[in-house]
Structure formats: structure tokens, C-alpha cells
Specification:
The protein is of the alpha/beta class. Strands 1-2-4-3-7-8-9-10 form an 8-stranded mixed beta sheet, with helices on both faces. The protein has 2 domains: 4-123, no CATH class; 136-428, Rossmann fold (3-Layer(aba) Sandwich), CATH 3.40.50. The two termini are 36 Å apart. It is globular and about 85 Å long. It is 47% helix and 11% strand. α11 links the parallel β7 (297-302) and β8 (322-326). α2 (35-64) packs antiparallel against α3 (73-92) and α3 packs antiparallel against α4 (98-123).
Amino acid sequence: MAGPLDWSLVDGPLPLALRVIGLLSLAFLLVTRDRRWWTRWLPAALVLAALLTYLVKVIVNDWWQPFPDELPFEVLFWIGILLLGLLLAAFKLRFLRWRGRLGALFAALFVSLYAMNQVNIYFDNYPTVRTLLGPQDTVSLKDATGTTEPVLEVPEGKTIAEVWKPPKDLPAKGTLSQTPIPGAKSGFKAQTAYVYLPPAYHASPRPLLPVLVLMPGQPGAPENWVTSGQLPMMMDAFAARHGGLAPIVVVADPLGSPFNNPLCVDGKLGKVQTYLSEDVPNWVTAHLQAAKDRTQWAISGLSNGGTCSLQIAVNAPQRYGAFIDISGEDEPSIGSHQQTVNSVFGGDEAAFRKVNPMDVMARQKFPDTAGVFVAGTDDATFGPQAKVVYDAARKAGMHVDLMDLPGGHTWQVWRPGLEKNIPWLARQTKLIP
């Protein structure tokens, strides 16, 4: 039986309980016998909640713009319910004695928890209670890597799985470690990375496993793939089906901080392209026993990270032979096209076109690059863009697939977008036949 930390926050008894308690709490806050409440305070709370919700919409969607797409109506509705619960409790305190006031505060708390979890259900951001607590069960990278081991020999034309024989003492699960990856050449100051090493890494002789460099969206951080993406569980499940074999995963940061957006280029906001195409691979080579050939290296990410994965694949094809672009854009952007060119490229359209994937693929062929584009069927913004970029990649000679998954621009698409493509990645990087 799963413990409380593994209870689902998106379906099952826990969200049902939050819904029931939340609605009862809202009803308690809405009702009172005092006539002034019905004629003055309740209408004031309703109007003020609506105005504050609209203000949130203006601030987030029009001014701040921290997300690649606007807050949807459903999310704004639940923000409105949360604000309404707080306002009702604040206004109702004057009508209650101390026990009633305590009840109103608890009611406001339960309404807030209910509304926040409804937003969580929409984005599927925290699948379980455990994911709310951040990454669990990490070990130091030094302990995870252990000593240098003899290398498993794989004959030309064979995959690792065809010569691999898992030892009896092979661990059942891989390891997860936090580590900085310095921008030795780029000077880029990245957020802390995570490294997943599959069970097979801890064997001797050690197979030189393929490497997947994985990136979060913006706003975000590498730990998002560990918590919301449930990366260790996903990779351990694949390893369990393949005798402990799975790719090494390096969850790297292309942002610098959660709300930065340097557009994955070498620009005024940081040399991110150099960081991902040189610093990260060089660090992996120096600290891990892993495959070195470009055919066994892949790059992937979601949303902003998906856009970045294609950018790096076409601008550094000598390093990465494969990519998985999950809900990426058709071009790097921090707003309008002109705003992007002005802010990041100093108004130089030629500098933008030099690194923009659509322009690069229009003038260059990539017969030795393979990729997958993933889009949500309900993603009205990035779904159509994925199809445009997919067509351009095909014309550029890439071996690409387009995968549509049910859902919008949320973890309902991003998590399975990676999970369903791990077998493809394993075959592409010569891990399995």
C-alpha cells in the first residue's frame, strides 16, 4: 500500500476530500443570518474578488508575462475562488465570536487548499504529496559514481543490450544526485543540475551508456523534472524492463534563474548555447564514464526547454545526434518577434536568423540527426507550431516523428511526452536493438 506521501493529488480520495471540505467551508463562509451581510458585505466580497482576479490576469498575462502562454480561464476562476474565500473570512469576522472566528479562519484555509489543488489538477504539476516536498533520496555524486571501472566492450554493429549481462548484485534502482555544472567556457551561471545514473552504471564492467541532457521550461528549474516529471521513477521503470539499462540523464539548466529567459543563445543574457553544447558535455566526460559519440547523445526539454533542444540540435549537431522537442515554439521568443530581436540580439535580424532553427534548417541539411516533436492536442498555441517545425525538419533531411498527446500545455503532456519516447531514444542511441 502506498504511504500518505504517495497519495495522488490529482485523482482519488484525497482531492475528493478536499473538494467536499472546500465546498462545505465555502458554504459556511457565504451564509449568515445578519441582513447587513447579504446587502453589504457579501456583494462587496464578490465584487472585490472579481476585481482582484482581473488584476491578477492583467499583471500576469499583460505586464509580467512569466509564462509562454496566458493563464487560462479555468485557472483564473480558481484564483478567484481562493480570493473570495479569504475575503469572506475577513469580512465575516466582525459578525462572529471567537469560536466562530476560528472556524472562519479554518474555512478560509480549506477553501484555499481546495482552489490551489484545482489549479494543480489543471497543470498536473504535483502528482503526489511527495512531489510537493522536493527531490527525495538524493546521494552525493561522488558516492553515486564510485570508482572508475573496466568498460564493457561492445562490438561494432551491436547495441549495448545485446552484449550486456546484468550481475546478480545489480541495484534495483538508479541514483539521483544534485551537482553544479560550471560554465567553464561560457561563464554561464546555471541553477543546480541533477544527474540520474541507472542501475547498470553501478556494474563492473561498466557499459558506456548514452546520455540525455534534459531541460525544464520557463519559469522553472531542473528539479521540476525530478518532482513534477517524476524522472527517477520513469527511468527506473525502463531500466527494470531492460536488465538495469537506461540512459544517463543530466537535467541541466538553460535559464540561470527560474524566471530568466536567455533564449538558449549566446547573447546579452548569457552564453547558453556554449554552455549546453560544450560546458555540459565536457563536464559529463570529465566526471562520468559515458558514451562520447554524438550518435549516443540526445537533448530534450519541455516548452522553453523544448525550443532550446531543437536550437542546440541544429546549432551544435557535432555534439547531439538526437532530440525530443516537447511543446516547443516555432522560434525562440520573449514576446513579439521584433521585441525578441531588439532585446536579445540588439535589433540585429541577421544575428537572430543565424541561430533560429527554422532559418538554420532552411539553409542546411541534417541527414544524421533524428528527433521527435511532441504536442498536446488541446495546446492551441504550441500544437500548430510543432507541426510547422516538424515539416521544416523533414525538409531539412532529419529523421523525425510527430507525436500528439491528449492535454494542453501542462505536465499531462510533458511527462508522457518523455516517457513514451524513452524506447525510441534507447534504440536511437544504440542502447537497445
